[in-house]
Amino acid sequence: MIAHYGYRDASGEYFVSMDSAKCTACEKCVEVCPADILEMGTVFVDLEDKPVAQVREGRRKSVKEDCAGCDHRGGEPCIKVCEPGAIIITWNRLS
Known about the structure:
Blueprint (H helix, E strand, L loop, with lengths): L1 E8 L2 E8 L8 H5 L5 E8 L2 E8 L7 H4 L10 H5 L5 E7 L2
Antiparallel strand pairs: 1-2, 2-5, 3-4
């Protein structure tokens, strides 16, 4: 299951997506996030709760501002440390 955290507005779409099937709950992404928007949580997968990384509840509508310091072209620290590739960044600005 892929959880999408973020939003789409008139300026573009800004999402941090987490693939719970790939997340190993290593917490590396949480540790390296310079904006401190990631945390560990649980999702219900295959009839049980699974620990996964997620965007903090209060920060889900502000990823555009909170993640502004990161490159958004694959240079994000969270993506670099996520060995299974569970984090997907969608950053499409409309011209």
